[in-house]
Amino acid sequence: MNGKFFRMSLSPENKNMIKGLLFISPWLIGFLLWAVYPIAASFYYSLTRYDLINPPRFIGLSNYDEMFFHDEIFGKVAGNTIYYVGLGVPIGIVVAFLLASLLNTEIQFRSAFRAIFFIPSIVPAIVSAMVWDWVLNTQYGLIDSLLVSMGIKAVPWLSSPALAKPTLIIIYCWAQGSAIVIFLAALQDVPRSLYDAALVDGANWRQRFWHVTIPMCTPSILFALITGFIGGFQTFTLPWLLTEGGPYNATEFFGIYLYRNAFNFMKMGYAASLAWILFILIVIFTILFFRSSARWVYYGGG
Amino acid sequence: MPQSTVEQQLAQERVRGIAVPGWQKKLAYWLGRAGLYTLLLFLSLTFFIPFFWMISSSLKNDVQTYKIPPILIPNPVRWENYVEALTYLPWHIFFWNSIVKYSVPSTIGVLISSILSAYGFSRIRWRGRDMFFFICIATMMIPFQVTMVPLFITFRKLHWINTYLPLVVPSFFGSPYFIFLLRQFFLTIPQELSDAARIDGCSELGVLFRIILPLSKPALAVVGLFQFMWCWNDYLGPLIYLNEQSQFPIALGLAALRASITSVSRMPLIWPYLMAASTTVLSPILIVFFFTQRTFIEGITVTGMKG
Amino acid sequence: MKQNGMTRRDFLRLSAAAATGAVMAACAPAAPEVVEVEKEVPVEKVVKETVIVEKPAKPAEKVTVRYWFSWGADLVKAIEAMMDTDEYKEHLPGVKIDPIPSIGDEKLLTSIAGGEPPDGASNVHYFSLYAKGALQPVGEWVNASDMINKEDFLDATWKTAFYEGEMHGVPGVEGWIRYGLCYNAGLVEEAGLDPDNPPLTWSETFEWHKKISEFDEAGNVRVIGLDPYDAMGGALGGGDPFMVPKSWGFQAYDEENREFNLDNPKMADALETMGQFYEHVGVDQMTGFRESFGTWGPSFNAEVQAMIIEGYWVPGETAHEAPEVSEKIRVSWLPVPDDRKGLKVQATGGHYILIPKGAKHPEEMFQFAEFLNTDVACHIIYDMIGWLPARPAFLKKIDVTKYNGLEWYAKSVEEADEVIPQELNPITAFTWKAWNDVREKVYRGDATREEGAKEMQEKCTEELQKALGLE
User: Fold this and answer.
1) Cβ separation of C297 and B266 shorter than 8 Å?
2) Is residue C216 exposed (0-12), middle (13-18) or buried (19+ Cβ within 10 Å)?
3) Model's pTM, two decimal places?
């Protein structure tokens, strides 16, 4: 293609398109390098056995066969992840929404309270892990040593398979700061006139909460649900540092199992197949949320 | 729900235009206020307890650390924990790495690339823009772990293991999250401003630098702040790519402190040390937060609302 | 004394095999499929070159040798002390060792795969690394060395230095005696037991455990007797999960036929016997206790755990870390099942220095490995940490009464009925995790002991097949 032809064929529309593409090229190249290529490569590696030292060996769908039909731990991992995401994310949203509603009342020092509820969400995960590990330590932790001194049996927060996941969910709720901020903004955006109208119709506070407040906040709730699910599926740092997947694999979540296979067992192929399943799961869930959103999310006026 | 009592009162008064200040109503109002503040204080305390325990433990000696019932406010206070914990491992290197090798370059990278991309997505009209933008938003869905394995294999072939390149280079290719944030902001700037500049012979880059960026300082601050904080907090990325302690950022340094103390030295001051190091790692974040609270909150609100 | 280890003849046979190592490697079962593209450094070449030189020329300029290990900062300090000695400066002029602590298998493997490995590594899963073909063979260097003589070491040392006839590990740092039931005489006496009459069998040990363990009225643990899975009992992250075969008397892994032998009544009995301790304390409580204190000694040092199964290094380490506890240390034989009562079982074997493929300064690393085996280096390690090499000549030179409890270990080699070399297999990391999962399944009541043993066998066999590409 010579310069003359190039110049001649450029309509203003094409010129803008080239400009646009040039401007977005950092993202576009990044998209190809850090998203398209790895996802495709991941699929290739998922069909191999690869320990990084010896070259990858093609083994067809064996990794998927192993995952779904032979790997007992994978079943547990899937169960744990669904438990954590399915319970943790909605509970986190409810907690954040209630706290935001509380902050939305006419109170003094709102920004101070908001700061206190918000701060846990910007604490580095590693610091949360250290601090909670020490708060929940069954021998000398704050809570259990108080219980022991009162002659009560210590609670095995992170060392009982039954309690480990609920404990992690509690920590998850503690760090819902950004959701609180988002909900608070949404609550403040609800037009006063709607409440006034509801009052005129004789609605009590419960009815107003259910029929005005919540519907008006559904877009934010949808957003929190989706980001919560995506984040929940990849949970790694906190359980990795607190329980390393234990006790009895009760906190062996998808992210941990994937990491373990890739970097502890050097099973890159198997890890890649886990990654693919994770990706598909997230895509399916996101689509389901968006599909269902037409039925329950209220987009005021368009 | 305490919210209701207050709001109902106020709302009713507003609607009916009549205030009925009977003593019962007044009492109910003040009881409601009292209940509301008690609840808020109680919840705030609950949220604050882990921090309190962290700071308190960081100042204890070994005897105080293992006392039952727990000592809440240590006396005497052992400040040496901070010195000892931070010299037990080379923390000055961890801080240097976190700031100079990771946070700063990666923040610069993300700013440059996201500004350019966001400009392309907002200030120029072109065919296919919305489709590309949709794809860009959709990539926010891709979890780190999905691309982790093949990217690791690639970076290994490039001999980038044990360097910060795998962590920093990708940020020079934009982050969908920030592109989205900046695009939303750029869209609020009147189009006439750039059109006028173009007529005056400004190139697109000129428009970007002379018109758009000076008006976007708050949004840029949000991007810079968030990216810096994410790098500061990042654990999994460094965990995968960095091997030697001399390359560790603070997150790995803290993990190494825990590992080295528990596995070998077994010293009774392990918890005070860990809490002292945790406090040190956390405090810059808190200080930055207190000074930039509004930026933080607005940043989260913008991305959260329109997503 | 019956020595289960290697005879001198075995050693010579293995050394001879090492000479044909290159040929053997080419004929190894997995080799034909290997596409050579990925191999970074032609290892044989490096080795041959150095062999011709016989003793590699001393480098003139400053060289920094990176040495990784998963031990902690104590060894770093010891190595720094070594570098200050005249002997070091004479042996390795212009060479600086950069000791990097707390770094394990994952990082080592990825660094080898990434082509930027350290020059040497220790305290990792040796056999997995041998089997992956990630290391440079060292047989010819060891043969040529006038500082490392095979006869100087306990025979058991050599057995796990070889894989498929090729020597991959240079013995060093520490590697003496691996088992003993250490107990805190103070806590034992407090429980009304006689510290001079320690338990010999698992059922006697369990009796001690029950008497020593203390709970408050609410049922919270104050002191436990023994966590049989702590430390050498099979703690994840640094122990030999195969204490069981030594105590119960069977071979867990047969390298010649590449077979695990884990599905047997002895294994099942072990799962049951050791699980009792957890059931007695309460499984969740024991787990919480473990998480609070960690494994490998903090609870023993804090005097809330009275017994621990550990090797000869405990007297020295405890003396440095908790001197007041060190005075109360007593040691007895590894408990055995009732039908083997009175049998004295001991095992030797220890650590190696590995030189990964692609190392930048393999010769200097090997020279440092030589230096680690000099008396000077061994004295520094002994004094600063309490570790000892598996070299009888050196062991004669030291004062074993320096650390309370060490004398027992020193004598145990002579007194033992069986001295077994440590057992390694090519999938150690996996077997550790599997052992952890299976035993938890059994003591939590989700599998019978027989099912546990069977599962362990199946899991390990399947993984071995995959790892070696045998299916």
Assistant:
1) yes
2) middle
3) 0.87
